[in-house]
Design goal:
With 153 residues, the protein is mostly beta strands. The protein has one helix at residues 123-127; strands at residues 17-22, 26-31, 36-41, 61-67, 78-83, 87-92, 97-101, 116-121, 132-137, 142-146, 151-152. The strands form three sheets. Strands 1-2-3-4 form a four-stranded antiparallel sheet, with no helix packed on it. Strands 5-6-7-8 form a four-stranded antiparallel sheet, with no helix packed on it. The longest helix has 5 residues, at 123-127. The radius of gyration is 15 Å and the shape is globular. The relative contact order is 0.16.
Length: 153
């Protein structure tokens, strides 16, 4: 079926969505309870689900909307999400930041270029004593704003 306008995503009908974010080939949404959902292209781990076992097809498209499970953020709900071309970022109510997806050019903030297939705490922000209050993802980079007004990226 062809369409010329927005179409409802039926998998989210029973979810109270409060925020959405779009990457180049993937999408995220955040619900009222602080749960994060993703769908789209799986390459590089940008959806935040552990890498599939067996043969991994880097061009796989996940059509179903799936909740991202991250035990680390269970005590503090996610309050913000953003997506770059091939990576995703979430911020909790405590100002902790988690990133996942393509690590190319260090865009995830983990001090390396490795891809992360599950949400991973950006530890350097915690070591700086920063309480992040805003996040933003560009095509191949991520920016953070802490509660003192310091901009990092």
């Amino acid at each position: 079926m062809s369409c010329c306008g927005p179409v409802q995503i039926h998998a989210l009908t029973c979810v109270h969505v409060v925020m959405v974010a779009c990457g180049a080939a993937h999408s995220l949404c955040l619900d009222k309870q602080g749960r994060v959902f993703s769908w789209g292209h799986t390459a590089g781990g940008r959806l935040g689900h552990s890498e599939p076992t067996g043969s991994y097809n880097k061009s796989e498209i996940r059509c179903g909307v799936t909740q991202i499970e991250c035990g680390e953020w269970e005590d503090s709900p996610v309050v913000a999400i953003c997506a770059g071309n091939a990576h995703s970022v979430a911020m909790t109510s405590q100002g902790k930041v988690y990133s996942w997806g393509s690590g190319l050019h260090g865009r995830l903030g983990h001090g390396c270029h490795m891809d992360r297939h599950i949400p991973t705490l950006v530890k350097c922000l915690s070591h700086l004593g920063a309480r992040v209050k805003s996040i933003s993802a560009g095509a191949a980079h991520t920016m953070f704003l802490d509660d003192s007004g310091l901009v990092m990226g």
